[in-house]
Write a structure and sequence with these properties.
Number of domains: 2
Bound molecules: zinc ion
């Protein structure tokens, strides 16, 4: 672990071991997806994917895992992670690597684990945001594998895999809701409007819902116990936003998805929104120090949401919006003091229980300290 105080003097080095472990394990999971597509992959992803390209990517990833694993051993840095990466890549090759034959006519199962969706989103999100955080860092001395990055990675896995498991239920409920349109002819049918306009309307409807859900979770002590998990993050980066109690994720998704479907938006507009929401959630937590100028008032940015996570009381119960800061301006909870950034994040020196399971059980035990 190469965490260091924020003195800016540490030389940034390539986390070869962590890179090897990440690529090796992702490669191994991908090979398992090739072997057991009906249990591990998602029909939507299977339909959309370019298989020959994916095989090349898999081969490249496994070779890079081996190269960085060897580099970690020689550089004597993160050797344990390097060994994990080498072992995972070797096992992946032993199981057929990028040459596993394609399963013809994959049977459709009612239940499956969306491991492919998890592997792809983790790979591309990490690639894009680790690059951006290295190019435009807010805190340049913060390493990629900062303290508690492993915990947040487990949250990422739990919330991705868990959500894909319940996706079927939500889709089923949404399909039924499709016939019960809330507007009932009183308002024009949004599905006939241009996709870009529907998208903007969904952003507004979703964020209005999220704003008040979020505010209520801060206000009601019992609900705060769940949301405190998200606020226990002490280092902000692309992975930090993954730390959410699973029950809050379920509640939040259901609350946002239901009105969007009831209002009758087109599937295409909803799909674009889902991609947008996934990206902006990662973005607002990222360790990116770019000054977005007036755009900071239009769309949620890292500085806007970093203040929501600030440890200092001046920022408690501020910046609840996830997409549109104008909602905080409207409802009197906006906080963006000039060009300043918070000094520290978290529950004001009162951390939660350690570990994924302990943090999931904590809301049922007692109210955490540091409630706003
Ligand atoms: Zn919050
Ligand atoms: Zn957050």
């Amino acid at each position: 672990m190469s965490s260091s105080p924020a003195n800016g003097t540490r030389v940034r080095r390539l986390p070869a071991g962590a890179l090897s472990a990440a690529l090796g394990l992702l490669g191994l999971l991908s090979v398992l997806c090739f072997h057991f597509p009906e249990w591990l992959t998602t029909p939507e992803v299977r339909a959309a994917i370019d298989l020959p390209l994916l095989r090349k990517l898999l081969l490249g990833g496994l070779l890079a895992a081996i190269a960085s694993g060897v580099a970690a051993l020689f550089l004597r840095a993160e050797r344990r992670a390097g060994l994990i990466g080498l072992a995972a890549a070797a096992l992946a090759f032993a199981l057929g690597g990028h040459t596993v034959p394609e399963t013809q006519a994959v049977p459709l199962r009612t239940f499956y684990i969306g491991l492919d969706y998890f592997v792809l989103s983790l790979f591309f999100t990490a690639l894009a945001f680790v690059t951006l955080e290295r190019l435009f860092p807010k805190r340049a001395d913060q390493p990629v594998m900062r303290a508690e990055a492993g915990l947040d990675l487990r949250y990422f896995a739990l919330n991705h895999l868990g959500v894909s498991l319940i996706l079927l239920t939500v889709n089923g409920a949404a399909a039924m809701a499709g016939d019960v349109r809330l507007t009932g002819g009183l308002l024009p049918d949004p599905a006939v409007m241009p996709i870009w306009l529907q998208f903007l309307m969904i952003v507004l409807v979703a964020d209005l819902t999220q704003y008040w859900q979020h505010r209520v979770f801060h206000r009601v002590p019992f609900l705060w116990r769940f949301h405190a998990v998200h606020h226990s993050v002490r280092r902000m980066d692309w992975l930090a936003g993954s730390r959410l109690h699973f029950l809050e994720v379920l509640f939040q998704r259901a609350l946002v998805v239901v009105p969007i479907h009831l209002l009758g938006f087109a599937r295409e507009a909803i799909d674009i929104y889902v991609i947008f929401a996934g990206i902006i959630t990662v973005f607002i937590h990222a360790n990116i120090g770019v000054d977005f100028g007036w755009l900071r008032y239009v769309i949620a940015t890292p500085s806007f949401h970093h203040w929501h996570h600030a440890a200092s009381p001046e920022a408690h119960d501020r910046n609840f919006a996830v997409h549109l800061p104008v909602l905080d301006l409207l409802f009197g909870t906006f906080h963006l003091p000039g060009r300043r950034w918070p000094d520290a994040y978290g529950l004001d020196g009162k951390p939660l229980a350690q570990g994924l399971i302990a943090q999931h059980l904590q809301p049922f035990r007692r109210a955490p300290d540091g409630a706003p």
